[in-house]
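Minutes, project check-in
Item: structure for the 399-residue chain
Input as provided by the requester:
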Amino acid sequence: MNVLTFSTLYPNAASPGHGVFVENRVRHLVAGGRVNTRVVAPVPWFPFQNPRFGPYAAFARAPAEEVRHGISVVHPRYLVIPKIGTNVAPFLLFRGAWRTVQRILASGYTFDLIDAHYFYPDGVAAVMLAQRLGKPVTITARGTDLNVLPEFPLPRRIIQWAAHRADGLITVCEALKRVLVDLGVPAGRVRVLRNGVDLEMFRPVDRKAARDRLGLAGPTLLSVGNLIPLKGHDLVISALADLPDVDLIIAGSGPEEAALRTLSERLGVAQRVRFLGRVGHESMAEIYGAADALVLASSREGWANVLLEAMACGTPVVASDVSGTPEVVCGPEAGLLMRERSVAGATEAIRALLAAPPDRDATRTFAEGFSWDPTTAGQIALFDEIVRGRSSVHPDGLA
């Protein structure tokens, strides 16, 4: 089966960590041997590559095309308009990708189905492409695309329009499926195919050697993710004020770094907080393995991959009880959920976990139940049903 993967959430040579969770799913799908794919991963158009323009410069540096892990990836440009951009993004994304998709077809790659990741604008644009080409399309919802964007009236209606015209709907957790059902989509049309974890890349390491290389002595927490408010790094830093013997490593970069450094200084914990900056995906296993616990204090998540990555390295987690997270942290071997998402809630859960941590081998064993194999099998089954014409008939019109 030939598939066209479509998503703006996909890594490129200039931003190798961007959307790596989508790439991981695609890699495991292709590795199964029953599906071929070409990837169309549009990036916003920006004219300047100078690093002083920050993340926008990375858009400009993204190659027009590349091969990643043996998979052909093209990066057409699309226009992003400030302020009003959210409402028109699907249409601009469709326009930016249309000629590229035509060239792929002209090159002789005839695909059976479009597989889109992220509902808005990606999934909506993919439905437009599919309608123009007479192809079936699936959309995978991943988090903010359904947790936040339907709060805005026009995106909500456009999401509903696309959901009723897609041939297959996938969510990475039950919580996101419930959002689609609340938007008027019949529950039977939505399949939950959760993210998996690469058990070869993320595995236990020589813990003493890893801690020595990182210069760790006492109990050490790890917080991973972009330095933006929703990730809750500030809650973890604040918790250190009541955890005097505990250190913290933060892996990630973003606009909140200066504010987080200021917070750690104001609370008198700066000497116990280390900022690593952005760390390559392939380098994270050692950091996970060296930590005593991963703390994820996000205000919202779809399916947080860092939780399973840490567990696969034998490291238990403390996490806020949001969206799909309880579906990941669902056993004592995994770690603990916060009673509430607050400094007090984080402090309480961290203290409890450090006082009675699960056996690290048991945590690894727990993570082994989340390989990519069931997700790959579920995708192939859905694609087969659609391509062979066995998908259920769905209604036209808005919910």
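Outcome recorded: Confidence is low (pLDDT under 50) at residues 390-399.
No further action items on this chain.
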